[in-house]
Amino acid sequence: MKARDLMEEIRENIKDYDIEIFEKKARDENADAASKQRAKFHIQNYNEIMALNIDEEGDSNIEIDDGLINDIKDELFRFFEGCSPESEEPFKRFITYSCIYLSVIAKRPLHPVGIDMHNGKTVFAEEKDGETVYYCDIKEEQSKIAKDYYTCQYCVCKPSELKENKI
Question: Cα–Cα distance between 52 and 68 in angstroms, integer?
Fold first, then answer.
């Protein structure tokens, strides 16, 4: 599948999502900081996806393996079945297609940079040789406890244990 065709599929599957749900969460004074950060992250991704123009030329027209896209969809299906079966279908679809966008097109983490996942563990970024490299403090431990699903395998983050000069 061409990147531009994938973007059309992503757009088609998220365009009707009620983004106001995230806007309300981001403004909610009673929401915890991580929930607000995730809401803002989802809003940013939605706006970026809807505005992105993939033309006929260049890197934006690369071929993307259909098998990879299907694997991501299957993994997220297992994730929702195991972690959040009560989630509504529009939300599941929004998250699935946002994750595909982040993993395959944007090549950015599946969680917001700086989010406190637990006990101060986070996702962080560093510039290295003019490139942004993303790290996750829980990717390694998640790989050890994963049973039925391991969505982290599709995230661009490297385990923070691999970071050079880690203190």
Answer: 21
Asked whether 6 and 64 are in contact (CB, 8 A), the reply is: yes
Pairing mode of beta strands 158-159, 131-136: parallel
Task: Return the number of other C-beta atoms located less than 10 Å from residue 36's C-beta.
Answer: 16
> CA dist 130 to 110, 127, 133, 134, Å?
22, 6, 9, 13
Provide the residue ranges of all domains of the chain, joining segments of one domain with +. Answer: 1-106, 108-167
With a threshold of 0.85, does the pTM exceed it?
A: yes
- Half-sphere exposure of residue 40, counting CA atoms within 13 Å on the CB side? 14
Question: pLDDT tens digits, residue range 10-65?
Answer: 999 999 999 999 999 999 999 999 999 999 999 999 999 999 887 655 666 789 99
Per-residue pLDDT reduced to its tens digit, 139-151: 888 888 867 778 8
- Residue 119's SS3 state is coil
Both tokens assigned to 122: 């986070």
Q: Which two tokens stand for residue 78?
A: 């297992």
CA distance 7 to 100: 10
